[in-house]
Every structure is written in structure tokens, then in C-alpha cells.
Amino acid sequence: MYDVGTRKRALALMDQGRSLNSVSRETGISRAAIRSWRSRLEPLPRTAPPAPGPPADQRAYAYLLGLYLGDGCISAHPRSGHYLRIACADSWPGLIDACEVAMRAISPTGRSHRVQAQGYVSVVSYSQHWPLLFPQHGPGKKHERHIALDLWQQAIVDMYPWEFIRGLIHSDGCRITNWTTRIVSGERKRYEYPRYFFTNRSADIIRLFTDALDQVGVDWKQTNSCNISVARKASVALMDAHVGPKY
Prior knowledge:
Layout: H1 4-15, H2 20-27, H3 31-39, H4 58-71, E1 72-76, E2 82-89, H5 93-106, E3 113-117, E4 120-127, H6 130-133, H7 151-159, H8 161-172, E5 173-184, E6 187-199, H9 203-216, E7 221-224, E8 227-230, H10 233-242
Antiparallel strand pairs: 1-2, 2-4, 3-4, 5-6, 6-8, 7-8
Helix pairs in contact: 1-2, 4-5, 4-7, 4-8, 7-8, 8-9
């Protein structure tokens, strides 16, 4: 027989995302006993860690928020807690690294890992508090529900708008080079000009993006309901200075 404190400690370790084998080795309790405690219809009450306040690294949070609104999701763990996942294309290894650095800076556990899939990597972190840090989490797809920032999130975005814009571009945006030809002094010459695009099916996320662009003085044009273009030379130069192409 094990006392209540021993059971609570073993279950708390499981709630941290630890495997059954590792908890059994650390505590000396058989896997069968731990499994039986977890499978009870009325398990022992477990106290959740205190809810975190606004993240200390607000710059990293602004970037991670942009990534989450574009290519992120939060899913519940079967036992307790939640996983935050950000999908990053294999084509951009620097983006994957930047995502992982930001996620570890914001995660209450300070941990994350990568899961390779075909053509992309999911950067993943486990915590009970991801829905508190990203209250935009909810049932269904983001573009099918209302998306708005809490006051504390908006304050962070107002302080670090470029990091927020960078996260959105790194998730659902791109920098491309267009070209055209003109006749100059009887000769046809080719001219190239860069521009940025951001595409998202959520009108609310589009608005958050364009509000941030307005704040930093970037001119933009909405080409359709899902697409924002930044093409003016001065605005592209601003984007290049603070965002740049994916890498």
C-alpha cells in the first residue's frame, strides 16, 4: 500500500508528460500500480501548478503569437494539460530554430521538442497553461470563430509590433520577387521588384496583421478577402529591415 502523498507525487510526474516507465523507475512504484491510479473513475485530486502571468519575455511572445495565429494549434492531452504545436516547413531551418527558441522562452516548463512529418516539422511543447497563454484557442478552425487579443496581449503587440508581424509572415506570409520588362531607348530591359504577401482565411487575423502594419507605417493593399500585399518601395524596405525573407 502507498500513502496519499506518494500517489500524488507519482501522478504529478505523469501530469508533466513523463512516461510510465520513467516515473516507475524514479519512484520505485510498479507500473501496474501507477496505471491503476490513473484509470480510476474518481482519481485522487491533483493540484495544478499556479497559472502563469503574462510572459516575462514579451518580445519572444509577440513572435510566437504570430506563429500560433498562422500555423499553430493547441490540443488537449488525454491525461491532462495541453500541447502547443507550430508547423514549420522543412524548407526554412532557420525558422524552425527561431520557433523553438521562442517556444522554450515562453513555455512554463522551458522545454520543447520536434516531431518530423512529411515536408514539415512540428515544434511541440507540453503545459497545462497553453490555453491561458493563448486564449484564442477554441473548438474548430480559427477562421470559423472570432479571434481577438486580450488586453494584455494587445499591450505586448503594441510594444513589439515588428516581432508580431515577423511571426505572422513566417507562418502565413512570404517575400517574393516580381519582374516586368520595359522598352528603354529602344531596348527591352527587365526590372525586378520585391514584395511581401500575407494570406489567411480569418478576417480577424487579417485585421490584426494590418493594424500592426499601420502602427509601424507600412503601406499595404488587400487584393482579396484573404490576401494582403506590401509592394511600395519604402514599405518593402521597412519590411526588409525588420522581417526579411524566410531562411
